[in-house]
Structure formats: structure tokens, C-alpha cells
Amino acid sequence: MVTEKIKSYSRFSDLQSDLKSGIVTIEDLIHYYTARIKEYQHLNAFLEVFEEEALKRAVEIQEKITNGTAGKLAGMIIGIKDNISYKGHEMTASSKILKGYQAVYSATVVERILAEDAIIIGRLNCDEFAMGASNETSYFGPVKNFADERKVSGGSSGGSAVAVQANLCYASLASDTGGSIRQPAAFCGVVGLKPTYARVSRYGVVAYASSFDQVGPIAKSVEDAALILEVIAGRDPHDATSSSEEVPAYSQKLVHPKKQKIAYIKETLHSEGLDPEIKNNVLSQIEKLRAEGHSVEPVSFEYLDYVVATYYILTTAEASSNLARYDGVHYGYRSNESKDLISTYKKSRSEGFGDEVKRRIMLGTFVLSAGYYDAYYSRAQKVRRLIKEKMDKILEDFDFIITPTTPTPAFNIGEQITDPVVMYLADIFTVGASLAGLPAISIPSGKNSEGLPLGLQVIGKRFNETALLAFSNYFNHLNTDS
Ligand code: GLN
Q1: What does the domain layout of the chain look like in residue ranges?
Q2: 3-state helix, strand, coil in the chain (%, to 5)
Q3: Can 81 be counted among the known catalytic residues?
């Protein structure tokens, strides 16, 4: 009975009131999730489970609940993506090169959820160094989609999405550089939020492309994503780029929005690779919003064809610099064939990194090299500026922009991994907000005829997660309550 109950929670306030009245205990939750993690081990979502430690913390936190001293996330059982440091625990970024590496300090996001009494249940599989859109670049293998195990989970936060989709934990933390929270959330039918760039500290999170990376929540409801964001967001002296903009209590501000002005990008619906069922899905969402009295108008975004190229030039450039630190000397893996400094670097990196990571380091090194810098890196920076200005301009006239989160539903495992260009195009609708640094969320948008989940992306104004979450919450309920 308790297990049916646990499965049904999608609003943390409901779970918390049952914890207070003793209908469920934190121990029940841990037993439930660890049993499910074992039952669904073949999904490959978890790389490690911290069962004993979680049970210990359960006792402490249960006591705090009894005493009335528990934090905001007391009883929330969270999985973390394997690129987020948790002191004393292994963290590999799903790469061979970091196998066996133990975090020497905790990421600020981890400190913050622990301070509010969340329990971290384990670490979650992802694409190697968060580079990928299907979780297939992970050294530990792909994550299977719980809706159809032949399909990919999406990526790079595949483990974080499937863990929530399959009830292996209550919610998860993930990171998003160009869609890694939103795209797997869409493929798995859950909610995924990428905050405004600089809203959340990156301290202790493995750097991929530092001017893009953001941590955010994956959850079953917008309410829960809002609650987690309010805990993890805010200025951090350890991350000089983190913003000192005040953090509202997002979860308390999910008020029913007045009539909104919404834009949709015309080009996204005429995009060549767009699945016809997704197109119809978005069109029917537009009609639904109009029927509710919102204005939804097409706008033109002439840079859609350039976003993927711009994103891949800039992120690979940043990655080539960020990944220079994995040299066989400081961290993790060192080749057995190391003879001197140069062979240590060469052999350790050749053996330690997977193909996709190597491809990106080479691409990034190329676009930054003398003679090509102006043609690629510097030009891409200018295009980034144009994209940002255009999106900001649209958001001066409108409250939100909506787009499909992905051009296709989850594809078959093995189907796209051999063609990087095809794989990169999976990011076409998510990288725009990343280039512009804007907050964006993917909410579930029903299923296609094969029963695969679809996602709808809502992009908001810079640092206005309050409005973005309130609207997405309302919209999500419009879809699920009817
Ligand atoms: N699929 C994109 C990439 O491969 C996004 C990854 C991410 O957001 N970390 O870069």
C-alpha cells in the first residue's frame, strides 16, 4: 500500500504532509527507491547507490521532522548527475579518465540541498563529460528509456531523467549546457529546468563549456522544480560568475498567470527535421493556450539555421581548454605506458577519453588555432551576440517563447551515434536559450502515437524564473488535469 502511495507523489508538499503525519517514513522511501533501483538496474540510470549512508541520514532527518526542525527538502530523495561533486564520493563524469576519482569537496548545489535535509541516494549516468544527446557516449553505456527500453533516454543527463521517470528517486539534479536537462526530460515525460546563466553556482560541477553550463532540477512537477531551484540558486563566493540577484521563493509564487503574450518561432515549425507528430502537438498546444484567452503569435527568428553551428564552435573551444586538466598527472586515469611527461599526457588522454570527447577537443583546438580563430571562434562569438540580442528583443514584446523541446521523440539506441552531425541537430531547439543565457524549461506535452513522451519548451526572460515557473506550472496543469 505504502509503495503505491509513494509512487503517486508528484508534489513535494503532499509527501511532506504525509511524512509529518506518519503515513510514510523516510525509511519507507529509501527502501522503496533502493528496491526499484535494483529491479530496474538494467535501465543503467544509477552508477552508484549510497544506500547505507541514506538510511543513516533517514534516521537523523526523521527525528528533525518529529522535532519540527527539518529543512525545506526533508524527505526528498535526490539523485545527482555524475558530474556534480559530493565530498568523499566517486565522481567520473561518466569517463574512464576519472574512474576512481573521489571528490575532495562538495559542489555548492550539493551543500545547499543537504543543508535543507535532502538525501542524496546515488549518482546518475550521463554522457561522457556531458557531451552528447543520447547518453550513448558514457563510458558506462547508454541509459534506457523507461517508456520503451529500445529507445535512448536523451542526454546528456539521461540517468537524471530516467531515474525520475521510472520512480528510482524522487527528483534529480542535472546540468544543461545546450539542452542536457530539457532534452532528456522531454524524451522521458518529466519536467526539466535550465535556469538563467549565472543563477546557480557552478562550483564543484565538472566544467564542459563554462559560459553555458548551468545546474538545474529534473522533477515530476513544476512545483517541485521551483522548490529545488529556490534552494540551489543564488550568489556563491566560490563562483565569480554567479549572480547576486535576489532569489525569490519560487515555490510560493506559482500564482495563476493573467492573460499572457506568447511567441512561437515560425522557423521551428518549418524546420526540415521536425517530426510531423511533434509539429501537430505544438500546434494543438498553441490552440489550447488561445482558447484559454492568451495571445499566441508567430515571430521570425532568422538565425535558427546557425544556432547549432555557433553552439558547437563555442562549446568545443571552451571544452578544449577546460579538459586540458585531465592529463594523467593530476586526476584519475594514468596510462600504464607512461614513460615521461609527454607520453603520460598523450597515452593517458588517448586511452582515457572516448571518441566524442576527443572529437570535441580536436574541433575546439582547431577553431581556436592561429589562422582559424577569426574565421570560426571570433565569428561565432559575434553570431552569439546577434542570437542573444534577437531573443532579448522578442522577449521585450512577449512574455514567453514556446518551441518544441526536440525535433523528434526518443530515437533507437544505436541509431544516431555513428553520425555526429545528425546527433548535433537534436539540439536545434534547445541551444538558442543556452547561447542567449535565458531560462528555459521542458514540460511534458503528451505522447505520440507510439506512446513516447513529447516535450514543450518555454523560454522566459533573464532572471525571471518566477514568471516562467508560474506559467509553466499553470500550463502543465492545463495539460495533465484535463
Ligand atoms: N547535446 C548537447 C551537446 O552534446 C548538449 C549537452 C549538454 O547540455 N551538456 O553538447
Answers
A1: 2-252
A2: 45, 15, 40
A3: yes
Identify the burial level of 92 via C-beta atoms within 10 angstroms of its C-beta, where 0-12 means exposed, 13-18 middle and 19 or more buried. buried
Asked if 195 contacts 446 with a C-beta cutoff of 8 angstroms, the reply is no
What does the DSSP 8-state code read for residue 199? S
Q: Within 10 A of 381 (CB to CB), how many other CB atoms are there?
A: 14
Q: What is the pTM of this model?
A: 0.98
Q: What is the CATH number of domain 2-252?
A: 3.90.1300.10
Selecting among 156, 172, 201, 434, the annotated active-site residue is 156
Cβ-contact 435, 307 below 8 angstroms? yes
Cβ–ligand 1 contact at 132 (below 6 Å): yes
Q: Look-up: residue for cell 506535452?
A: 445
What averages of pLDDT result for each successive group of 10 residues across the chain (482 residues)?
87 96 96 98 98 98 96 98 98 97 97 98 98 98 98 98 98 98 98 98 98 98 98 98 98 95 97 95 98 98 97 98 95 92 97 98 97 96 98 98 98 95 94 98 98 98 98 95 70
- Asked about 99 being catalytic, the answer comes back as no
